[in-house]
Amino acid sequence: MASVVPHVFVPCMVLILGLSWVANGVDFQRDPPCPCSDPALCDPIRTDPKKEIHVFSTNGANWRDYFWDNITTVAVQDGFDPQMMCHAHSKGVRIVVWGSFSVQTLFNESARNAWVERTLNYNVGNFTDGYNIDFEMPLLKSQAHVLTAMVKQIRDAFKKALPYSKVTFDSAYSPNCTFFGRCYDYRSIGEIVDYILIMAYDELDLVGLKAMANAPLNITTQGVDDFIKAGVPPAKLVLANPWYGYNFPCTLLTKNDTCNYKLLTWGQQDYSTIMKLLANNSTTGRKWSEEYQSPYFDYKDSETGQTHQIWYDDPISLTLRFQMAKNKQLYGVSVYQADCLDYSTNQKAVNETNAMWDAFLGE
Fold first, then answer.
1. pTM (two decimals)
2. Catalytic residue among 52, 109, 117, 136
3. Domain count within the chain
4. Residues 207-240: pLDDT tens digits?
5. CA angle, 91 as apex, 86 and 94 as ends, to 5°?
6. Rounded to an integer, what distance in angstroms lies between the CA atom of residue 112 and that of residue 229?
7. Does 6 reside within a domain?
8. How many CB atoms sit inside 10 A of residue 19's CB?
9. Which terminus of the chain, N or C, has fewer Cβ atoms within 10 Å?
10. Known catalytic residue: 52?
11. Residue 86 included in any domain
12. Contact 321, 361 (CB under 8 A)
């Protein structure tokens, strides 16, 4: 991307004034109607869990079927069902919005302030418990301080308007900026936010063009170690794991079961779809990679005759990753995302979904 010259950063000032607050000179009243049958459910969650279990949601219709007793925080997107907030609060679960801003916004002072103002207004009006920053754009090291300042501006605004709120930050599986060009100051960001979520997935080797695990345990572990070496305390790290996998159309399947594929031909598939393919289409049954500590299987497309290889994570592989997070004394674990499971009444699906949620209990 073309380099962008950052503007002078001026933090947004937020002052609590009874039931109103002032942000950048605009006065907001916190008097939206509570959508819950019990108005007390619009009150913020005030207690902090000893261990975080953070689940991403894509605002699907399945939220009533989540295993709420296994969750401490659920991250939703703009436009979420207000009744989801009511239900989360009835279970003592925080509900936070996850989203981001553009690079153009980051490097424009007035746009930054407007974004913070608008985002804070939305969250206060919807009785949420904080914000999850999902900024994933490349930055030069010389630009990193601008992102750090933006993160602090968001944190300060939320903490003043919503004192019990949590502000968190999503990161790629490694802080190494040569991988993604995201040369962020993770140590400073870690000092600002409540915790950093390590998105330990999409760890594919796109150079070798050989099918592999979505989240190899060795690569995930190295990423965690690198964050700690970068100065982020384990107590400020939450490990996010995938509830989806990758489907690779093989151009060649070697004798040692290596699937070669063409660039950009693979696709993501959620766990529920993968389980159906494993049950109905697999030519090999579930196999296990000792190298990646992940399951996979082959199947043949009935229409084209092409062999595919699917790599994914299941309760066994996820438990290994959750245990690693526990051994390294991370603050908790997370999954992306809760709507990847089959919440139907089919007994096989029920068993599979229960096992995925119950994997948290071993953590």
1. 0.90
2. 136
3. 1
4. 889 999 999 999 999 999 999 999 999 999 999 9
5. 70
6. 31
7. no
8. 9
9. N
10. no
11. yes
12. no
